[in-house]
Write a structure and sequence with these properties.
Radius of gyration: 25 Å
Number of helices: 12
CATH superfamily of the largest domain: Hypothetical protein, domain 2
Number of strands: 0
Distance between the termini: 55 Å
Number of domains: 2
Structural class: mainly alpha
CATH class of the largest domain: Mainly Alpha
Helix content: 40-55%
Largest sheet: none
Strand content: under 5%
CATH topology of the largest domain: Endonuclease III, domain 1
Length: about 250
Amino acid sequence: MPSIPFPKKKVPLEAAREELKILEKSYPDAKTALDYEDPFTLLIAVILSAQTTDAGVNRVTPFLFERYPTPQALAGAKLADVEKIIKPTGFFRMKAKSIVNAAKALVERCDGKVPRDRETLETIPGVGRKTANVVLSVVYKEPTIAVDTHVFRVSHRLGMTLGKTPRDVEGDLDKIVPEQKKHLVSHWMILHGRALCKAPWPLCESCPLNALCPTVPLRAKTLAARRPAKKVAGARRPAQGASKGKKG
């Protein structure tokens, strides 16, 4: 199935904010799908969520945190033991090093607490900008926007951004999302991306945004291009065995 191209122009600011209102109304209870108890368990869960599903992480973390409930406990863990627990999440050797080293950094540099400021948070092993944004927005309700694959795709399809990188997309969204909603917008888009705005083929017929979305006509064109050409009306095949005419 061919992929649908992203729109080449942004929608007007008024249209983008109307799209945001519809997303908020459609997903009023949006929140992270990762299970967590505190900032530490969320941080570790987000690191583990790279290249896997939230559901997969949620199946593993109860066993991980039962054995290592605090940064101090995880900091003292043997890598081989951690690897066995988190193996189903994929890339488990790299992730085991990341979460153990993250726990050590929290203990040694942050008094065992997850920092609230971005600059310090991004010095923790395994923590990049997206992970920091998730923790800051979910735990501390800071006005940060985490851009994952769903947010990247949905924001492009809705014409809110033309950004080539997650950082560019974050910057565009930061300009149009109201300050008090910034910690929620990623959750709206993630749920919408999972439910309707799927890759590579969105379910536009069921989407509450289809009257505003600039991708709807692009989808229609892509669909039309896949259809076989229609036969010319009135064209007929010669009857089998029909004479081609008498020789003169």
